[in-house]
Amino acid sequence: MGGVIDYLLTSLVVISLILAGANYLAYRLFERPRHALMWSVSFGLVALQYLLNLARDLLPAPAFYWQSANMVSFALVLFAVWGHRERLQLHTDWRLLLAAYTLLSVTSAAVTLWDPVISIRTALAPGFTFLAMTHIALALVRSSREPRLAQLVAAVIHQLFGLTQGLAAAIALNLDSGSRDFMYQLYSMVNFGLMPTLFIALGISVIFLLATDLAGRLNTMSLTDSLTGLNNRRGFMVATEGLWARCRRSNKPLTLLLADIDYFKRINDRYGHAMGDRALQHFARILRESVRLEDALGRIGGEEFAVTLGEMTSAEAESIAARFRAALRRQPMRYGSLELDLRASFGIAEWQEKDDIASLLKRADIALYDAKASGRDAVIVAGERSLVGMASNG
């Protein structure tokens, strides 16, 4: 039996190290998310705990083993909790975690070294793990973070693992009873029967959370302009399709507004592309502040921006453009001693029954061309005219 347990413990050491390594790779490769680093430390400590189990006969005394194992267990659980809270963007005061660790370690020392109480000594770590896993499961369920399925699966697995630990703690509290041998057998059955399988499932659920987070991040990056933080052209079209479908269903107006920075090439030529990038960021920030959160907003070309205004007419869009132009005048771009007054031309088109998104965008583009042709720093609303041979230019 001892050989089987040693083999199981060795396997769990290897699995824990693999999980620790996988989380550390996620930390190094994917913009260094702190929760991945904390989970890496947690699984590394799990490996240390199993190594202590393997080497317990080589340690100076049983009391030394129990105190060491408990302190490692408290630390790994706290790092796991901290990692989940960090991922869910919940505030965590590290001083409270340190205080909890200190209190648990002192309590363990009291019932292990000073006044030994076998039942409490054995129940401390699994009992604390049960409380921590329940906290993690509740935090995952309550969080609105997507994808919800990954959150719920992880919550169920963490709770099942916690319940196994809670069962182990309940059994441990009866180790001082008359049926001590039976309780030891039951305790070993839970720890070496149920727990390893659920521990592996827990590790997989954590990797699954990291993978879904990465997939979400990559999807966001594919839809986002990295310079301004707005939607890129693809992201803008996706957001516009949603607004367009909603307005069609409710028979509400929808208007597309295009904005193009005037004489942008001169900024790049005179001050360099770094200053041009700052101008784009400044322009994007003011544009974002001038529209509603529910509007679709994106940078769809070099210096061309677009806004889809749901439930707004072209006349209302003109008011938005006027407000934005006024904000541009009030807030020139400043960098060091340099001050630049940015101006823009605008093309506006209101959705008509015959329009699809492509033709609506084309009509707004024609209006923008007319605004440029009229001398720039102007707002033109699309009229009924041919679409052939017209395109906006800088």
Corresponding CATH superfamily of the largest domain: Rhodopsin 7-helix transmembrane proteins
Instruction: State the name of the first-level CATH class of the largest domain.
Output: Mainly Alpha
Number of domains: 2
How many helical elements?
12
Beta-sheet strand percentage?
A: 5-15%
Architecture of the largest domain, according to CATH? Up-down Bundle
Which stretches are low in confidence, meaning pLDDT under 50 for 5 or more residues running?
A: 384-394
Overall SS class:
alpha+beta
Average pLDDT confidence is: 89
InterPro entries: Diguanylate_Cyclase, GGDEF_dom, Nucleotide_cyclase, Rev_trsase/Diguanyl_cyclase
EC number: 2.7.7.65
Catalytic activity: 2 GTP = 3',3'-c-di-GMP + 2 diphosphate
Cofactor: Mg(2+)
How would you characterize the overall build of this protein?
- The chain crosses the membrane at residues 6-27, 36-52, 64-82, 94-114, 120-140, 152-173, 193-211.
- This protein is α+β, with helices and mostly antiparallel strands.
- It folds into two domains: 2-221, Rhodopsin 7-helix transmembrane proteins (Rhopdopsin 7-helix transmembrane proteins); 233-381, Reverse transcriptase/Diguanylate cyclase domain (Alpha-Beta Plaits).
- The protein has helices at 2-29, 34-54, 62-87, 94-114, 118-142, 148-172, 180-223, 233-250, 264-271, 273-290, 314-330, 357-373; strands at 254-261, 296-299, 304-310, 333-335, 338-340, 344-350, 379-381.
- Helix 3 packs antiparallel against helix 4 (94-114) and helix 4 (94-114) runs antiparallel to helix 5.
